[in-house]
Structures
1.
Amino acid sequence: MNAAAPATSGTPGVSPVQEEHGQDARGGNAHKRDARGTKVRLRGVSKHFESGVGDGAHRFEALRDISFDVADGEFLALVGPSGCGKSTLINVIAGLDKPDAGEVFFEGQPVQGAGPDRLVIFQDHGLFPWLTVQKNVEFGLRVLGLDKQARRERAARYLQMVHLTRFRHSFPFQLSGGMKQRTALARALAVEPQVLLMDEPFAALDPRTRDILHVELQNLWLQTHKTIVFVTHSVEEAVRLSDRIVVMASQPGRVRRIIPVPFPHPRDFLDPELVELRANILKEFEEELEILVKKEGDDDWHLKAGSISARPPRGVDLGLADGI
């Protein structure tokens, strides 16, 4: 697959000066994305699952020929309809699943299994209900062998980053949904992984709580410079947070487009250009969702053209290109 087209002169949100000096999405005097170094590389990754036995056996192709790179310090979003293999792809990068074909590389070395350098945050926060917030954050540090004082100090640092110091002695049942996810985020960051893999971590939260956590995650990313791969069904979420968006096609999961998001961080989530970019990306989904409804509904079920993104485009250059 070919590389995604870079932003060209005149792209909304990126000034000619930024382009000339190779400033990245964070707006500072940084190297271009390609100069940051590759953290994760996928080449020809395919994965299938078997279900049933005998005559009822069924082979489901979850991923087919997935290839792209994730740069060091990049925030990459995976977006697509249900069944397109986003979570499977996260598990393959984490080393929790092995691909049937192709390879996954972490810092140039083949991924052989799971490790603390690639940590997953799931939609279910997975907190231990019998441990306090602080003890939950310390749990992974205990596994790593840090002594008591080091665990306390590191947990305190990351709880402060997610604004939960006041609640360090609370138990999970005493927390709101957003507070639980912030605790899970602090626990993941405390282990100090090189890559954070986030599988729809905010999907179960109400819209206002998601707004708050989008701001917090953006700020945390700017502070820590972590490489993040973020799975979401929400195009709005992807546009708000990411450097690039991998739009996936479903059944089997494939890379449909890779779209650069050229706007600097921190972002104004109500910026009209962000809203316009979201509307244009939603057009990518209309065809995929039409395929999905035909597979999962009656013959008379279909999407009316423009029903997903009714707003006409106003000249936002997506830089769309096949492949990586």
Note: Residues 1-34, 311-324 have pLDDT under 50 and may be disordered.
2.
Amino acid sequence: MPARFFITDLVRFCPMVLMAFVLSGGPSCSEKHVDKKVESESKKKTPAERMQQFVIDISNYARQLRPGFVVIPQNGPELGFVNADTGKDFAHNYLDAIDAFAVEELFYNGEYAPDEYRIKLLERLATEKPVMAAEFIKDDKNVADAVAKCQEKGFLCYPRSEENYHYQLVPTKVENENAEDITSMSQVKNYLYLINNAKFDNKEDLINQISKTNFDMITIDLFFYRNNAYTKDEIERLKKKANGGKRLVICYMNIGAAEKWRYYWRPLWQIGDPEWIAKPYEGYEEEFWVKYWDPEWRNIIFGNDDSYLKKIIDAGFDGVFLDNTEAYYFLYKDK
């Protein structure tokens, strides 16, 4: 990973190299003080409130640099309510920070298996923000039903087959295809979710396949493979639909779990070292739930020129897709 100072490094070297470090773009002592303040305030919050604040802070940082930057959290729709309590009012500060809610397997999880609890919850949230549902459908004959059920509730539907379970294919059919220019989430009528590049030979292959489609919005990773990030020119190419219309290009970023294949991962890291790597992510052996309020993890994700989010913004993406916001639940569900 690129050379980077952690907070403990800054304490050790400040003030001797502070001026040089600040001029080079690193965090200052005052920024470190802010981190400590954030950490102190975070300890007073519930796990859900900590995640709400994390998303809000990510959004504020991005929109200061890029007004209108789109922020879409995936899963954890309860966060749309005060302290994630669905019996309370909407968490308006959280809703102001995001542009849509994304969820998975709402009506179909292979077979028809409607999640009535989440459906009713998202019906309420849909009065405030668009809802996107990635449905997993084993039998192609059920695709039309999945789309219809989502549309009936006012939700966007991304139907994916068993072959596309891991979001690695570009479907040939686009639901509600149109030639309109798309500049905000409120205009999106369909979307592509493509974060696994296993089926593509190289970046150019992936770009060419997407460029032949008319999806209103696409979500891809910042990297084609490991450290092979998309350039600003490549992202600009993806912003044009085959029919000439404009579309949104959104970048996937996992904020609730650390991934061993990412540029930030260090070879000796393991659960508990650093302390914020909390527990295994069941079903994904190279991912780990994190203590997302920890200053070191926050600094990896956003707030400085070497952060993940700054790389996404610099690459020219229109927004960010925040995965695993439900970490607040999975960190504690076995305790």
Note: The longest helix spans residues 47-65.
